[in-house]
Amino acid sequence: MTPKEREKAVRENHQALAPTEGQTFADPNEKVCHCFIAFFNKSVAYINKLDGRKIIPIRHGATNGESFLQEAADVCKEFVSRDPRFTVLALSAATS
C-alpha cells in the first residue's frame, strides 16, 4: 500500500471499530479530524512520538524499555484529559 492507502485503511477501520470496541460513546454524526501519531522507543531511554504535523520526533519522558507500554499509555491518558475525544488504536503482531 502507498502511504495514502495505508492512512485511508487505518481511518476507515478506526471509524468502523470506534463505536463498537471503544470504552466511550462515539457520535456517528460528529466529524472526526484524524491526526495519527506513533509512540516508539528507539534508544531505550525516551518515549518518542512521531506526529505528522511536526518535523522532528517529540520526547515524552524517560523509559527503561521494559515499562514502555505503560509509560506510553500514561502519555495517552494525559492527551485524553485534555481532549476526551482522543482515541487510541494499538497495532501489534498477531499471535498464533
From TrEMBL:
One example of the protein's molecular function in GO is: cysteine-type deubiquitinase activity
- Domain UCH catalytic, by residue range, is 1-96
A GO biological process held by the record = ubiquitin-dependent protein catabolic process
Q: Tell me the Gene3D superfamilies matching this sequence.
A: Ubiquitin carboxyl-terminal hydrolase, domain 2
UniProt lists the family membership as follows: Belongs to the peptidase C12 family.
> What protein is this chain from?
UCH catalytic domain-containing protein
Which species expresses this protein natively?
Glossina palpalis gambiensis
